[in-house]
Specification:
single chain; alpha/beta; Spore Coat Polysaccharide Biosynthesis Protein SpsA, Chain A; 7-stranded mixed β-sheet; 12 strands; elongated; binds 2-acetamido-2-deoxy-beta-D-glucopyranose
């Protein structure tokens, strides 16, 4: 490429020096240079201006050593070379301009390429059975300015940028105690209680439980303290956003949960949201085709429907990605606009409903947790405790979500799995009384 650029200028130096011929040759050379500058910008990009200067100086030296020429002729040649030098300077200016345009173009290309890198490079499809779409989104860049005080706490508490988080006010003090006692017993260090009132903050402090108390002047928090369950649920999604913005993955946990193993040893971490299910068997937990029958339709009486039991919005692992944060924003937004909505229903609708006319669905990847490892209390009391094999397996957690008498059932779970009391689960009915 460099040769193409140097060629014309070199040739101007090698000619026999007769005024008009030289001028013509140089003009042609300059013209060629311009043409090449336009059509071969990459060549210009790599050749340095110093090379061109050298060519011109060499020509001057040869002019000075020519024998048998009148001084008039030499002067003429000199003035011609001044003109050529000026043209050369002009050409260099053009080169600089083209180079600058090229640089800007390269920058634009670079930006596009960076976007491609984020979205995944363009590839041809690999052979049948070997293609695999993306489900793991890149994480956001941590932004400490969102909440520097929380950032400091998380630096101490989190492990591998992961933390269990529970919100609690004084209404759930007894359950919270069973909750953190089980966590301590398993030996999980990375957990944090968001204390919604002073009482819980003091309770955590006196029990050596990591906690984070919100600033009292934060608007949404005062709503949560005076408001009911739904206001607290809305607050949950607002606060979670800060954790994700700080770059942490959160295992959000209700307090009616007993920990029996470290959940961080049982996560896949391949999806935006990884959640426990309210399902109680393979079909209800993982999805199935529920055939709806409409006999009046005759030949087409069977309509196939996709069914899955909802995700439990009281226990899910959420990675700090854009789709995750969008999910939190959408749920919090809807909870504030629709005060009578149930946070778990909203959470699931946002996660699962596809885009359709007038609606843009969320495109977050999701994974259902193993319902025997992350067990709800329906699975435990309806199935597991009566099954000789299943009752021997130790779940990771048990969530007493299906029963209103949470506290005694939590204690029974602790007695059964931790204290070896075989009969601890027996007194309770499958459902509520
Ligand atoms: C449920 O699914 C698991 C894994 O997906 C499988 O190993 C098991 O056999 C299934 N159980 C039933 C009853 O289909
Ligand atoms: C328990 O496991 C054994 C051995 O795999 C099997 O023979 C038995 O049928 C199982 N019992 C139940 C209740 O599933």
């Amino acid at each position: 490429m460099t040769g193409r650029i140097d060629g014309p200028l070199m040739r101007s130096g090698g000619h026999s020096f007769r005024g008009s011929r030289i001028a013509a040759a140089i003009a042609i050379g300059v013209a060629f240079g311009c043409v090449f500058a336009l059509f071969y910008p990459h060549g210009l990009f790599v050749s340095s201006p110093a090379v061109h200067d050298f060519r011109i100086e060499k020509s001057h030296a040869q002019v000075g050593s020519l024998p048998c020429e009148s001084s008039e002729r030499v002067n003429m040649l000199k003035s011609e070379f001044v003109a050529v030098s000026e043209k050369n300077a002009e050409l260099k200016k053009q080169i600089r301009e083209v180079t600058e345009k090229l640089r800007l173009a390269e920058q634009g290309k670079d930006h596009a390429q960076k976007q491609v890198l984020v979205l995944g490079e363009q590839h041809k499809a690999s052979p049948f059975g070997t293609v695999k779409g993306l489900r793991t989104s890149p994480t956001v860049v941590p932004d400490e300015s969102v909440n520097p005080r929380l950032a400091k706490i998380l630096e101490k508490v989190a492990i591998n940028k992961e933390v269990i988080v529970a919100l609690a006010n004084s209404n759930v003090k007894d359950m919270l105690e069973v909750w953190f006692t089980s966590i301590k017993r398993v030996g999980i260090p990375n957990y944090l209680v968001i204390a919604l009132d002073e009482y819980i903050a003091i309770f955590c402090q006196s029990n050596d439980v990591p906690f984070y108390k919100r600033d009292p002047d934060e608007g949404i928090d005062s709503i949560a303290r005076t408001g009911g369950n739904h206001a607290v649920s809305g607050l949950k999604f607002h606060i979670l956003r800060e954790f994700l913005q700080l770059g942490y993955s959160v295992l959000l946990s209700d307090v009616d949960i007993v920990y029996l193993q470290n959940p961080f040893d049982h996560l896949y971490r391949d999806s935006d949201v990884e959640s426990m299910t309210d399902g109680h068997n393979n079909m209800t937990a993982y999805g199935f085709d529920d055939v709806f029958d409409e006999p009046s339709m005759g030949w087409a009486r069977y309509a196939h429907t996709m069914r899955i039991w909802v995700y439990n919005s009281g226990f899910f692992y959420i990675r700090p990605t854009i789709p995750s944060i969008e999910l939190l924003d959408r749920v919090a937004g809807r909870l504030s606009r629709e005060p009578n909505s149930w946070d778990q229903a909203v959470f699931n609708e946002e996660l699962f409903f596809p885009s359709h006319p007038g609606y843009e669905g969320l495109h977050a990847s999701r994974r259902t947790m193993d319902f025997y490892l992350f067990m709800n209390s329906k699975v435990l009391f309806k199935t597991v405790r009566k099954d000789a094999n299943l009752s021997k397996l130790k779940p990771v957690i048990v969530h007493v979500n299906y029963h209103p008498n949470k506290f005694p059932r939590m204690k029974a779970v602790v007695d059964y799995y931790f204290n070896g009391k075989q009969g601890a689960l027996k007194p309770f009915p499958d459902g509520s009384d």
